[in-house]
Design a protein that fits this description.
The chain is built from no helices and 10 strands. The chain has 105 residues and is mainly beta. It comes from Halobacteroides halobius (strain ATCC 35273 / DSM 5150 / MD-1).
Length: 105
């Protein structure tokens, strides 16, 4: 059995300071852990696969298509392929998110 300790994984910096940790990647799934500090933002982009977000910690704003909502820990938000999306840690707290893509890119 493999156990992945998310807090012990080293991340890389992306999108002006956001820490990104690769949790899992195979042909079916890609799981990334995004750690945003207050004020950080993942710019608008889209991908050609299904995505869902699981909010691990904190609150922030998620934009999918034309909808923009404040989401919080334990929320799960699906996003269809080729839909523009962005994240922002605009609620004054750390915002930790799992980004799951199926199939993997």
């Amino acid at each position: 059995m493999e156990i992945i300790k998310m807090d012990q994984l080293k991340g890389t910096e992306r999108w002006e300071g956001i820490t990104v940790k690769k949790i899992l990647k195979n042909e079916d799934t890609q799981v990334m852990n995004l750690v945003l500090q207050p004020g950080d933002k993942v710019p608008e982009h889209s991908v050609p696969v299904n995505v869902f977000f699981y909010i691990v910690e904190g609150k922030g704003t998620l934009r999918i298509g034309d909808e923009k909502k404040v989401v919080e820990a334990k929320d799960i938000i699906p996003c269809t392929p080729n839909t523009k999306m962005s994240l922002q840690a605009d609620q004054g707290e750390k915002f930790v998110v799992l980004n799951i893509k199926t199939p993997s890119l």
